[in-house]
Amino acid sequence: MENKVKFYGQGKEFFGIWIVNMLLSSATLGIYSAWAKVRTNQYFYGNTEIAGDRFSYHALPQQILIGRIIAAVCVVVWVIANQFFPIASLALLAVGVGLMPWLLRNNARFDASMTSYRNVRFGFTGKLASAYLVFLGLPVLCYLSVGVVSFFGGSQLKAGHFGLGITLLLFAIVLGFLAYSWIASKVASYYLNHYTYGNHHFKAEVSWKIFAKTYLQSGLIWFGLSAIAGIIALMVIGTDVGVFTSPVSGSFPLLIIGAYLFLAMTVMIINAFIRTRIRNYLFGQVEVGDSPVYQLASRMTVGGLLYLIMTNLALLIVTIGIATPWVKVRTAAYLANVTFVIGDLSQLQAEGEAVTQNNAVADEVANAFDLGVGIG
Fold first, then answer.
1. 292-309 mean pLDDT
2. CA pair distance 345, 338, nearest whole angstrom
3. Sequence spans of domains, the chain
4. What single string gives the DSSP state of each residue in 230-249?
5. Residue 370 main-chain phi, psi, to 5 deg
6. For the chain, how long is the longest CA-to-CA vector?
7. Average pLDDT of the residues in 141-167
């Protein structure tokens, strides 16, 4: 049995919430933004439905406000240190990197524990040691290895051993690509295998090969589009070879505009391709519970997501940001429309546990430094 996720939010309806949030947040110098976040999440969660039941968001504004104050202090201290005390800023950077796994893990715990479905809350049970291994240990080990190979490759080139040097540098590139794919799969596995719904645990077998294949295909798309763009550019320029040496050439502005449009379009296409492939794969790997077992499914398409990205961008540009509520609602509606829960949810029985993860500090600090890692 397939249960389609439904979203009932409306752009016009959310606009009223959004504009009030904006005005009050500005009037209170950002203090009201904590209440704004809660109202926004309550609206989107409350309008998301599966099998006739909707989600709820339980965070209190006071929790988020404390977290945001601490996050703001961290940002201010970092900016001041970076401007006036460079050595101290390096020390703060080291501390920040050291705290990153703790922030990401606690961010997931807070967000999950503040979410409920059928009066049963979600949870996240990832261990802190595992977070440090996945978010810090493995990346450092992998890219240190890449750096060592690159160093020896460069040394061989300087010594005149071009064959060995080029071989080592190419090996470093391949090693870095594989390391990135492997780490990305480990991050996804860490999250997916530690979420809970009441007494039900999420499980997923995640293969790094799918990530590597997806990233490789996205690279091929980049090269293919670049080749097409190059051919078109030569056709447009024609015999006007002066465009490369004279900025006042008639074709020069056209070339610059075309380059920017190509870059923007290519980024959107590759972003849509990667997000679609990875999301569909990860959702298809998820199982929840033991008896019965429920599964997730994602049927996102590259064309559908690309259309959403392009039209949302156009709306924001034309309305100078006023269409933000409609953009958020359209995005939520699209994601819901391509998401399914497979299984008879009328048989779902879950027992909730006491929630103790009520600290929003890590959540807000992670958001302040843009450390969020999402899979949806």
1. 96
2. 18
3. 2-125+195-367, 127-193
4. HHHHHHHHTT-GGGGT-TTS
5. 55, 50
6. 73
7. 93
